DNA sequence: TTGTATGCGTTATCAG
DNA sequence: CTGATAACGCATACAA
């Protein structure tokens, strides 16, 4: 009947659900159920349908399913970059949680260019993703309203606020910076430096660090901002910079790779850590425990952040009410040899 | 007319292309063209449509578009893990290339469990992704045939073969291992060790390394395999292991994080590198140039691999014929202080 | 437990 | 340059 018409739009050899239904001698809906809710079928029917699926090598078209059901089973995640392991751990945790529930992950990177965020959000909403995970709590103009209007569940991560777009799981960057200053001063270091990127979260930590320093009676934090994403070489250069000018007694780096670079520079200059200068990192990446001297760092549970974000989305998608829409995972200063 | 029916399946306030068309006083297809091929519209018409889109806050439903056009504008990529920066650089390059052409990236991780690959491939084919990027050239049973049958363009990466599923861009892991052995022996190191993961690509490098050693008259390579994904601590432990037994004069590590861990262990034990033991890494991550002593490593152009993979897919998707379906990007031993 | 009919929102076709 | 209409392949409401 429509064979002529079909050939105009479809590859002739496409196997559709209807073909499977016919081969199995059942209705389409039975095939649909065999795929989606196999428990609700008589075992014999199920077996027949599955045999037909295998025989015809039927691959269900999830796009058509999404359109019909208005659910895509896709979650989108937007991060500054995955080249930096701190976010890739979060994505890893998120993926792990979602995959178990047959959701898939659409990945967007802003490369720290804030305006990319809006374009990505638009594209993802157009895809009718079922949920969205964002990095940070400050967003490009229009993002907040567009996301809200879409009515899909959204989780912000890697920071915390009492007024999330929808839900948030993270920690206070400001508090982490503050605590780091307190830690260093308590250790006896009276002049402080900061090495970090210029992104919102790094700046929040810097703000907290300065605040904490002031509260401890330390005035002025020698600061070097580096380009993002940053690497060990940036850390080394920044440290050289600090040494040439203010030469603080202790330096807080906004991630462990920068801190590692600072330690390498110290090693090259035969500067004893922490005897001559103390170095503290952030994120507690695997390298922190491995490096020599081992690196004191702020642990932030990046992977768990992803897992919790996934759980929140899944709860919402399964119709449950989410009690706590603001989840503060906190942070912990992990004391090691370098500070 | 169908308003009652619509309310049963659709959020009542959904704005569709038809609504925009009505508001702009044009047909639906004109709205479609305003979105996809704006050059083909009269400027005045285009302006009217765009005004209507803005006014109604219309968000095109790409799922419906995909179904109708049989193109999803989604590329799927499967990697062992993104926690490891070597693959995230490739993904970064891939994303960069695709985003410019309005393609999006669906991410799948196998966590080095080979059977996950088949499940991911099935899910992605069900989504009717327009292209697929795989890691490595050995795949789970059934993957090769299913992917081939789908007829979508596929690029394998991070290794090389004369018989790809479709296309391949990478380098020879075996040759890289071989060259590393030759390099170390040429430097005068006569006993060799290997630290690496148990995945296919690491094993290929090991195979090449042994082959190269043998060719240079060095018999036997002290080998320690570590779990994947590996981190600096694994590298340190593995090095301790080697020192306790065979104590080779030079060690080749299958990635720079393992090598970094080995260097850290040397620092802890006051073992001079390369005077007492030489260490060589793989991948030439940013840490290689930053660490002290700087790390001799094998550079593999991970980002370019992603970019080229993306270009190949785009070429194929735009209907062009791809001349070279096998692209060997090669590798280069970058000599630094550690070996 | 299973089947039938219809809509999901867009793009391709072909005509004007 | 623009429009009317028919697919795209599946899930859902409702009936049996």
- Overall, the morphology of chain A is elongated
Low-confidence stretches of chain A: 1-8
- Share of helix among residues of chain A? 40-55%
Q: Tell me the number of strands of chain A.
A: 12
Question: Number of DSSP helices of chain A?
Answer: 14
Main pleated-sheet profile of chain A = 6 strands, parallel
Of all chain pairs, the largest interface belongs to:
A-B, 59 and 59 residues
Distance between the termini of chain A: 78 Å
**How large, in whole angstroms, is the Cα Rg of chain A?**
26 Å
Question: What would you say this structure looks like, in words?
Answer:
- 2 copies of one chain form a homodimer.
- Helix content of chain A is 47%, strand content 17%.
- A 6-stranded parallel β-sheet of chain A has the order 2-1-3-4-5-11, sandwiched between helices. The first copy, chain A, has a 6-stranded mixed β-sheet with strand order 7-6-8-9-10-12, sandwiched between helices.
- Chain A starts with a helix and ends in a 5-residue tail after the last strand.
- In chain A, strand 1, helix 6 and strand 2 form a beta-alpha-beta unit.
- The longest helix of chain A has 16 residues, at 200-215.
- In chain A, helix 2 (17-24) packs across helix 3 and helix 6 (85-99) runs parallel beside helix 14 (302-317).
- Chain A has 339 residues and is α/β, with parallel strands linked by helices.
- Chains A and B meet through helix 5, helix 6, strand 2, helix 7 and helix 11 of A and helix 5, helix 6, strand 2, helix 7 and helix 11 of B.
- Chain A binds a DNA duplex (16 and 16 nucleotides) through helix 1, helix 3 and helix 5.
